[in-house]
Structures are given as structure tokens and as C-alpha cells.
Amino acid sequence: MKRDMGRFLGFILVFFSMQGCSAQTQIVEGEMHTVSREDLSYYLYFPKDYETRPKEKFPILLFLHGGGESGDRLDSIKKSGPPKLLAQGKQFPFLILAPQNLHKKQWWNTRAVIQLLDSIVADNRVDKNRIYLTGLSRGGGAAWEMAVTYPDKFAALAVVCGMAPVPYASWINRDMPIWVFHGEEDKSIPISESIAMVAKLRQMGYDVKFTKYPGVGHNAWDKAYTTPELYSWLMQQVRK
């Protein structure tokens, strides 16, 4: 009994001493250098006349795929968008950089993507004023993010059924033309995402094209990326 009473009194003393100390807790400052590593596999397409015109600089299109193509099989990104068209034999007048998101259930590491893009641009004959950005679904959301985070990088942006960062719309380069595509019956990423973003941008005076597909669900990319006008529109854009 005395032993139990001693334990109880000891607990009471510790409890009250902790309560007293909490009022004296101090905040300390700290700093730590962090390094994040990302292994990015990618396809890089060159126009057929890239080698025959050695003094010319070419535009480049950065394409970000959707969540279904994430993983460690690079050829899976040929299922949609420009990589699918390239696999079918289509030619483009610009370079195309198509990296793969390694993580099936994680967001794109856009910092790693921008490092890859900068490296490709530095090592090849790329016109830095004609860097175009596009993405679909999860990659469309990442494309919006990159446009917000790197407003002075891109000459044009095309987003297909992507989640939109409406609160940060004003961070996007006001001089960059934008084209948004979305299926009206999309159950995965509702068209309301694009409607709200387009309305916000237009309210602030941005140049935005908006294509809605009646009766189309989440897969708006088959229609969007087989729209010839998309690529002629991209080629007209030069970063201001």
C-alpha cells in the first residue's frame, strides 16, 4: 500500500512539474538543407529536318501524361497524347519532350520536370522563346501548376481535363495564350474545374480558348490531341 501511494505521489509531482515547464517552453530556430532526387525516364522527339537545318533553333513541346501512364514502363506513355500520335507515324515541326511520372499514386514532381526541361533545352537547339506546355488529367493539373510556378518559362499552355489552381490564376503570365479542353460528362475531374479557371482568367483579361466536348467523359484527350488547329496555334505563339 505504501509503495502504491509512493508511485501515485511520484506521478502527481511529475505531472505538475511538466505543467509548470510548459509555460517556460522556448521556440528555437533551425535550418536544414534538403535534397530531393527523382529519376525521370523520357522520350525526346526531333523533327525530321532538325539535322538538315543545323543553324536553326526549334520550338519544343513539353507533354505531361495522365495518372494511368505513371509507373516504370516508359512505353505506356504512348497510349495517349502526342506520344501516341508519334507512335502512329505523325510528324511534328517541333521537339517533343515526354517524361514519365514514376509514381502511380503521387503528384508530378514539377521541380524535377523543370530541371529536365532546362537540361534538354541547354543541350539542343531549342528556341527558348517557343517552349510550349501541355498535359492531360493529372498531367493537366501539373501543367497548370508549372504555369503558376514558372510564369516566365512558357510561350503557350494547353490543358486537357486538368484540376485547376483557381486561387493562383493571377500568378500565370498574363501574356501567355491558353487553350483548355474538357469533356462535359467528366466524372473523374469535373468540367467545373476548367469552367471556374477559365472564368477567373477571362475576368482578369487573359487570352483563353475553351473547348467543351458534349457527351464526352474523362477521355477528352483523344479529341483534343487530334485537333490539327491545336498544333498550328502552338506554332504561332512566341513568349513575350
UniProtKB/TrEMBL annotation:
The keyword Aminoacyl-tRNA synthetase does not apply. Residues 110-223 form the Phospholipase/carboxylesterase/thioesterase domain. Transmembrane segments: none annotated. GO terms for molecular function: hydrolase activity. Signal peptide: none annotated. It comes from the Bacteria. Pfam families: Abhydrolase_2 (PF02230). Keywords: Signal. Gene3D superfamilies: alpha/beta hydrolase (3.40.50.1820). This is Prolyl oligopeptidase family serine peptidase. It comes from Cerina litoralis.
